[in-house]
Amino acid sequence: MLILRDLSKRYANGRPVISGLNYQLAEGEYVAVMGESGVGKSTLLNLIAGLDGPDGGQILVDGTDIAALDDDAATLLRREKFGFVFQAFHLLPHLTLEQNVALPLLLRREAPLRARQMLEAVGLGERAQDFPRQLSGGELQRVAIARALVHRPRLILADEPTGNLDPDTAREVLQLLRAEIKANGAAAIMVTHSHAAAASADRVLTLTAHGLHAVAGGTSG
């Protein structure tokens, strides 16, 4: 469902960060991407999401080249097919948990019901009317996962989703993320520095100047 074809990107100073990268992500596949700092892991996610444009190559999502779309079309594609989980949560403090989770569904009548269903799924159904300031870091990340999955996206992009969490909370969040990805049949790419986080994925890849390379097996099934 995702094809990266001869993808390349340079920094503003002209130094290449991604060069001639090729990769295919199958429907239902959950992969972790690791690599040294500065190798371009977050840049790769931004390119896939259409938040940054490549200098060459194609990024095909269900056959659509996101790099060839204008801003409005790319935004619509992200809204319909992508779910995002960030290290910093990015919840809106003036909205309740239910309202935060419902954001991707604002134009749909089922938004409140679906938001409550997802909060139930992440164990926070009774906290729907609470605000982000009332939650712990682990609870905030659970809400972020609920928001990422509420519209049943085809592709989940997660950037260091456990970077601010203690080991026990991180383990719970990763188990939840994996369970929800599999339950929804979504494909997912998680960028992480953590070997423990990477082990929750089906496959572990390393990003280098020469592309993406499989280095170890994650959790299968």
How would you describe what is shown here?
The protein is α/β, with parallel strands linked by helices and 221 residues long. The chain has a single domain (28-50, 70-217), classed as P-loop containing nucleotide triphosphate hydrolases (Rossmann fold), CATH 3.40.50.300. 32% of the residues lie in helices and 27% in strands. The strands form two sheets. Strands 6-7-8-3-9-10 form a six-stranded mixed β-sheet. The radius of gyration is 17 Å and the shape is globular. It starts with a strand and ends with a strand. The mean pLDDT is 88.
Concise overview:
The protein contains 7 helices and 10 strands. By secondary structure, it is an alpha/beta fold.
Separation, N- and C-terminal Cα atoms: 19 Å
Q: Which class of secondary structure composition applies to the elements?
A: alpha/beta
Spell out the helices and strands N to C.
EEEHEEHEHHHEHEHEE
Number of helices: 7
Task: Please name the defining characteristics of this protein.
221 residues; alpha/beta; Rossmann fold; 6-stranded mixed β-sheet; 4-stranded antiparallel β-sheet; 7 helices; globular
Topology:
Blueprint: E1 2-10, E2 16-25, E3 30-34, H1 41-48, E4 56-61, E5 64-65, H2 71-81, E6 82-86, H3 97-102, H4 111-121, H5 137-149, E7 155-159, H6 167-184, E8 187-191, H7 195-198, E9 203-208, E10 211-217
Parallel strand pairs: 3-8, 3-9, 6-7, 7-8
Antiparallel strand pairs: 1-2, 1-4, 4-5, 9-10
